[in-house]
Amino acid sequence: MNEQLFWVAPVASLIALAFAAYYFKQMVKCDEGTDLMRKIGQHVREGAMAYLGQQYRVMLVVFGVVAILFAVLAYGLGMLNQWLPVTFICGGFFSALAGYFGMRTATLASTRTAAAARESLGGALKVAFRSGAVMGLVVVGLGLLNISFWFFLVRKLQPDADLVIVTTTVLTFGMGASLQALFARVGGGIFTKAADVGADLVGKVEAGIPEDDPRNPATIADNVGDNVGDVAGMGADLFESYCGSILAAAALGAAAYVGNEAMQIKAVVAPMIIAGIGILLSIVGVYFVRTKEGATQKQLLKSLSLGIDSSAVLILVAAAGILHVLGIDNIWGVWGAVASGLITGIVIGKATEYYTSSSYKPTMSIAEQAKGGAATIIISGVSVGMISTAVPVLAVSIGTAAAFFCGAGFDISNLADAGTLSKGLYGIAIAAVGMLSTLGITLASDAYGPIADNAGGNAEMSNLGPEVRERTDALDSLGNTTAATGKGFAIGSAALTALALLASYIEVVRIELINGGTKMLEFSNGMEAVTTKDATLMDFMAYYNVTLLNPVVLICVFIGSMVAFLFCGLTVQAVGRAAGLMVEEVRRQFRESDGILKGTVEPDYARCVSISTVGAQKEMIVPSIIAIIVPIAVGLIFGVGGVIGLLVGGLATGFVLAVFLSNSGGAWDNAKKFIEEGNHGGKSSPAHKASVIGDTVGDPFKDTSGPSLNILIKLMSIVAIAMAGVTVAMSLI
Amino acid sequence: MNEQLFWVAPVASLIALAFAAYYFKQMVKCDEGTDLMRKIGQHVREGAMAYLGQQYRVMLVVFGVVAILFAVLAYGLGMLNQWLPVTFICGGFFSALAGYFGMRTATLASTRTAAAARESLGGALKVAFRSGAVMGLVVVGLGLLNISFWFFLVRKLQPDADLVIVTTTVLTFGMGASLQALFARVGGGIFTKAADVGADLVGKVEAGIPEDDPRNPATIADNVGDNVGDVAGMGADLFESYCGSILAAAALGAAAYVGNEAMQIKAVVAPMIIAGIGILLSIVGVYFVRTKEGATQKQLLKSLSLGIDSSAVLILVAAAGILHVLGIDNIWGVWGAVASGLITGIVIGKATEYYTSSSYKPTMSIAEQAKGGAATIIISGVSVGMISTAVPVLAVSIGTAAAFFCGAGFDISNLADAGTLSKGLYGIAIAAVGMLSTLGITLASDAYGPIADNAGGNAEMSNLGPEVRERTDALDSLGNTTAATGKGFAIGSAALTALALLASYIEVVRIELINGGTKMLEFSNGMEAVTTKDATLMDFMAYYNVTLLNPVVLICVFIGSMVAFLFCGLTVQAVGRAAGLMVEEVRRQFRESDGILKGTVEPDYARCVSISTVGAQKEMIVPSIIAIIVPIAVGLIFGVGGVIGLLVGGLATGFVLAVFLSNSGGAWDNAKKFIEEGNHGGKSSPAHKASVIGDTVGDPFKDTSGPSLNILIKLMSIVAIAMAGVTVAMSLI
């Protein structure tokens, strides 16, 4: 059989989609509760669909324009891969489709979760979690199905083509997924925080009504925002990482084993097979998640962890088996790379939990500082966030080193050897695949968060009893913890994926050089010329002078670092401006209709959703253009060496900055909750007021800018890959 | 004559010291004002000397231990340059001496400035600015005198030694300067903000007494802190950059012209000569700084700018002349590099002014956001700070590229050519020297700030009339603007200096390899072996695999980025903790003696100074150890390639992060002042309260962590250079 094991990937994808459909149907059958609950749910659902509709309309235009551009470059000027225009649209479409299913499920599930919470905690958890699993399974199912389909198709159509060409062609699928993720994550991130901040500033602070009060016109937008950010945004982000890592691994596998066809095909299908197994065992993990009535927060968290950890262990065992059956070379090396990735993911998750959960010292110390006022809580949150970058960065560094060492067959004494470097880089990409192999279930626990949050909002607005609210609160609080660790996981996997994409960039350049007629690489320093086809990665590095003493490379590293900060600053600013529009709208509604605050007139929820939507779409333009233009411009001005410098600078700084922003934000959030639980004076104490300021500052950090950086680092890589042909054709250096 | 022009350097240094002595004597002769003024001045002076005494005692121990360690490594194991133990102590000693003179002058000058302000604005400006010039001239004088002395001595003692060996030996002088800068800048930064925050929190907020009130026990410590941070700290930072850039340029010059002895010596002395000319023309610039009574803020700023800008223009003209006389190759290239550096410095200064002065949109928009409360002003300050990184980074990038292009003789078509790369890197180092050539006068305007600030404090505490206070306020406000632009200049020059040090690292490695007996570089990828002596920089890059696809290099770039954040988080945390001790002490004094608040009992100022001193010394231990250990550990574990990756990652991220922190902090500070001038409700409005929180958050950003990053990026480079022998000897990779 051997390479026929490839079929594990599409079959597992279909099974994932079937389970998603099954969970969806089960959820829809559940009781939706009272009329009021239904009505509120309806509002949120309509808002969410209105948001998606608007986003997809804008995307249709953008995708159309870019696709035409790509078509001109590809078919007119012959500078791009011929498949790019098609795979580009396909990648975007399926990512958007996954987002649509996830949002639809989440918004249907929240009322049902609230309704189930009237009966029991366990029942509510089951509804919420399995609905979250719909998103998880749809993302991995659609992602892997597409990859298998394109791989199969391109190979069928070009049966004699080298696998390097086939895999680098399929790699272009990532460009569409990446652009859609930009809309979902950056636009969504701005939407959710604009609505949140707007609702809080006028509702809580000015009008003095509680959170989730139906009299607040922005409250529905706020609830929609939770779904937009943590379901659609997170889903698109991870869809991109998932596909990107598998595609990059396939391309690097093909490159690492050039000249050994039997092994090459195995190296290419291995990441798909591992992903397929990961899907199946994620589904198994879903069944480990259950709880009993009156469970404590810790028990709830344990039951979620049990699901994810069991999946991880099962995947490790199964991967060893299937790699043996596949008969890949360096079995234990590839397996070690998978393990490195899985362990790195778990370490990052634990570190994130340590730095952002109020059960541990860092967040407690931030809460303590709240007693000194707003300034001291901000300062301590910033310092904790910055210090918290150490463990995730070291984890990724060690994980990367281990994966490289394993991938290279446990011998890296001669890096200049063509095989060592390529195989090691393949190992790094396999680590990314390994880390993301549990995505089916980890994303379930991410998407679970907003469902539980919205269920709580629904229970509040529908005046359900205190015991219901208590249950939804418990589920919501659990969701906050999983949201923080989920962010850590998303960042870590984005960093590994970007690293894998960076490594595969050179393979794409090689193909473009060959297509462009460059048969030999002629070195300028007296090294012997080598054929482009047989050049090692080190030859390419020498050819393009990609060393750290080349000022072009150095300058571009600087620029990459700066772009991460600039992008981040622009997204933070965007939230501020979009929130300002929301504040004005809510004030206007209160002013123009006295009945709203009295509760006799229903506010215009839809208008708030639409304002946030339009604001987010508008505000994401400038940062998005920067993310797309900079790698293209650097490629045209500085050539291949500059692009690699840019990607490394952006990746290194963006990764660390994202961890800092996410963890600071998460820690402030939980410090506030810790005070609300009655510590340091409890609610309405001066410490609480200070902590609210900390939380508000942290909101755009953790929900807009931090996650947007995941997109930036991957998008810059994928743009560079997509435009490699143009860079090679136009470059003067 | 030609290379005899070298003598311009020591002669100019001596002239600088003579002028410094002259200005000092003139200042001491000025009237010191009333008895109360004298007494307060006495307190601050005693506090400052107590701080310095304590710092120097700790340094004596640390320097002693490190010197012994170096001696063992150098004389016992033969792993280090034989001169290092001696030059190390010397570099530290003279940097400390410059700090001592500067502090002594500044603390003597503030009372005299206040006294002069009773008469006229122009007189007060003259006293303050010329006293600032003492610091500026002492730093450049002692720095350049030492460099010339060591260069002369080492050359005399080893008349036949290659200039590369001579210059890399003298380069070790930077290690001592760097370690002393660590104490002065990081320890000083923690001291100044601990005192400031402590004084404000208890004095202003709890006890409700105004700033600079003599009843506040921490007020003297606060005034001492201004001197500690902006005189001693800034001075040591720039002493290090100044020496580092000249030394690196000399080393790179020697390397670039190996084999052409006539030219080599010219390239080595050129940076010293340019620095010497810079000193002389800085002194000329001092005489352009004058103003008339009732000058507006803008006119005051103009008169300072006039001094600096005239110096810059004169230096450009004179440099062209002297380079002709020197008869250096590629005259216009070297001159172009000087110009690139000077222009980069000016652009960074202007950009900093734009982003931090309340005359421009960014800071005004932050003040506007204060109306929304503390959270919105923090968010907008963060976003402005992040966006503000774009121009300085682009300026340094373009300046670096231009300097490289000029240095390489306007032809970079063949980077692999040994000459092109070395000469280009020499150009980059020359740009750093050019940027810092105006240091005599730019540092004068930095050191002027705390003198004016303290003069204001003295006037307040001594109950001088409102017209005096008005004059000192005008001078103080000017000092705030120069402080912000001075920080930008310090960061930019630190980045360029670090870049030059990074480039010279490889030259040091070469010497160590030769000393260690490695006569040939044998490549592992089939390239022909070359002799270590004749190897090009590109050969070294190939030998050590310093390409961006080498995972070791990549991982170390990640770690470098992370260390910048970690270091920063630790210093922010340090301020919080040290300020906590100060708060307790002030509370204790108020509690234990009723007379203090009544004004009948003098508080124990000295104890506050001592608490801040001890706190700062203690809190700087952990971040300092990290800054020193990481490059050594990376060298031992990952070898030369890892070290270069680490330095690049730390430099890129540290530079951008420092700009962000400094500009955010500066903008918050001025937004607060803008509101205090009566905008958005003026003093005691809710907007003002919010802006005070912004300013408090910004304090450690701009005065501790941001400036500390300057030290980090240079210190890591110089540690790597000093330990190159150990890295080469021990490295397994």
From TrEMBL, chains A, B:
Transmembrane segments: 6-24, 58-77, 83-103, 127-151, 163-183, 242-259, 265-289, 301-326, 332-351, 372-405, 425-444, 488-506, 548-572, 628-661, 711-732
Protein name: Putative K(+)-stimulated pyrophosphate-energized sodium pump
Species whose genome carries this gene: Oceaniferula marina
Reaction equation(s) it catalyzes: Na(+)(in) + diphosphate + H2O = Na(+)(out) + 2 phosphate + H(+)
Domain of life: Bacteria
GO BP of this protein: sodium ion transport
Keywords of the record: Cell membrane, Hydrolase, Ion transport, Magnesium, Membrane, Potassium, Sodium, Sodium transport, Translocase, Transmembrane, Transmembrane helix, Transport
UniProt xrefs under Pfam families: H_PPase
Keyword Translocase part of the UniProt annotation: yes
Function: Sodium pump that utilizes the energy of pyrophosphate hydrolysis as the driving force for Na(+) movement across the membrane.
Membrane topology: Multi-pass membrane protein
GO cellular component terms given for this protein: endomembrane system; plasma membrane
Record-linked InterPro entries: PPase-energised_H-pump
Major location (coarse): membrane
Cofactor(s) this protein requires: Mg(2+)
Family statement drawn from the similarity comment of this UniProt entry: Belongs to the H(+)-translocating pyrophosphatase (TC 3.A.10) family. K(+)-stimulated subfamily.
Site residues (Determinant of potassium dependence), renumbered to this chain: 483
